[in-house]
Amino acid sequence: MASAGEIHNGKAAMKLIRLAIIASFCLVGAYAGYHLGWSHALSSPEVEEAFTFSSPLPLTRSGEPPVEKLDSATAISHTLPAAMRAMRHRDLDTFQERLKELETLTADELEDILRQTSPDAEVFQGIFELLVRLNPEHAFHLIDDLLPGGKSDRFKRLGFSRWSAADPQGAWEALQAADFPRWRTLPGSLEGGVLKYWAQENLNDALSAWGSLTEGDQKNAFSGISRTFVSDPETRGRLFDYLKERPQGEGRQWAIGSLLQHWVGAEGFDAPAEWISTNSGDFSAEDTAEFERKIAFSQVGSDPGSTIAWLMDRSNPDRRSADLEALVFGWSISQPSATGEWLATLDLGRDTDKAVARFARTIERQDPESAYAWAQRITDRLTRDQVSHAVMRAWKEVDPNAHHRMSEASK
Fold it and tell me: Most buried one in 83, 88, 230, 332, CB count within 10 A?
């Protein structure tokens, strides 16, 4: 695949191919924006199909003359509006003609168009992504200049994702630059988005790139690889073998945990649990316990009673309280009522205080009255007072009148 630099310098024929595909997205998005809003256009099946680079598309039909060079002024005043009208009226022949004209725009001309286009316009994202394909580093700096103060983040997220899909190695190299204009996200998550696509082209190179990251970035970055290959037994086995040979540390632990959790989601609990048991001799007791916690966390919403019992049987007494807290948290996010019913069957005490506190804090905004009642069942006085005050603050924000009545009644 051509690198970002090759695309920019016009040395690869794929430049125009990608331009055609992205221009399709730009105009399809414009059409959808008129009826559904831009966010719906981005998630439509047609848009996803437009970004599937499985085979090159011809720039022109055989025997047709080359398209006359387009300038940015004409694109703004005529080509883009004409293309949108054509899409609205389902006039695909006219749409294809306008599309060919857009293929001839240069990076400078696209920048000129972008500077003259309102960020609220449906076509703004599409034009930005065209520029990303031609000159990605400049495009991300430009969007920050046009939309300062974090307003550019939503454009950069999607633009970077599309770029990663088309040229993962070029996107990876750009991320390594100290001045790359990152946006707020979890450490390593941008790298993980690139590795997801790179691994599909060359798994060994993607793993080597992942291994070059700091342990902090490795934690979230491996998720893209594990999600991609978890349902392929052969590749999944290769990934486990690779990770087992890595130096012991937080990065390896999180990567194996990510692979195990995605495995639970794809094929169920039993096979990952068996893998941990079979391979426990290759890991420290701490790592093995962490793997067990991770798959239990992934399974608890599907089979809470058995999952909690399974982990409690394996949990170190010093960790049992924290493990129960983690499982209750994971379960209560999706099934708060069922979690509360199960907690009510326990003999509450110091071993359950963390779990009860976590449950109260989890439901404090959706059901502050119940959260406050649960907080009163915490046996440790200091923890009970801290959680009660936190719940009352949340209650005051979501329902000031009910909070006032409760405060008065408790005096």
Answer: 83
Extended beta strands in 114-226, E state: none
Q: Within 10 A of 282 (CB to CB), how many other CB atoms are there?
A: 11
Q: Which of 265, 355, 341 is nearest to 305 (CA)?
A: 341
Residue range 293-310, pLDDT digits in tens: 999 999 998 888 899 989
What are the angstrom distances between the C-alpha of 277 and each of 229, 270, 292, 303, 314? 22, 11, 9, 20, 11
Residue given tokens 């399809």 in the structure block: 28
pTM above 0.70, yes or no: no
Provide the H-helix boundaries in 36-91: 38-42, 45-50, 72-74, 80-88
Domain that holds residue 124: 1-174
Do 210 and 271 fall within a single domain? yes
- Please compute the mean of the pLDDT values over residues 343-371 and round it to a whole number: 93
Note whether 236 and 230 are within 8 A (CB).
yes
Domain boundary among 150, 174, 198: 174
d(CA 121, CA 218): 37
Indicate the number of domains in the chain.
Answer: 3
Angle between helices 336-343 and 368-375 (to 10 degrees): 20
Query: pLDDT tens digits, residue range 151-175?
Result: 888 888 888 888 898 889 988 988 8
Domain identity same for 215 and 86: no
The sign of the dihedral angle between the CA atoms of 41, 43, 45, 50 is positive
Same domain flag for 329 and 396: yes
Written as six digits, the tokens of 148 are 């300062």
Residue 403 lies in a domain: yes
Band (pLDDT 50/70/90 cuts) for residue 239 is: very high
Q: Are 59 and 104 in contact (CB under 8 A)?
A: no
Report d(CA 11, CA 164) in Å as an integer.
19
Q: What is the CA radius of gyration of the chain?
A: 27
Coil, strand, or helix at residue 13?
coil
Q: Which residue has tokens 């978890």?
A: 230
Domain identity same for 146 and 24:
yes
CB burial string 290-301: b at 16+ within 10 A, e below: bbbbbbbbbbbb
Contacts of 269 (CB under 8 A, 6+ apart): 295, 298, 299, 302, 303, 307
| Backbone conformation region of residue 58, classed left if phi is above 0, alpha if psi is from -120 to 50, else beta | beta
Task: Look at residue 311 and tell me whether its pLDDT is greater than 80.
Answer: yes
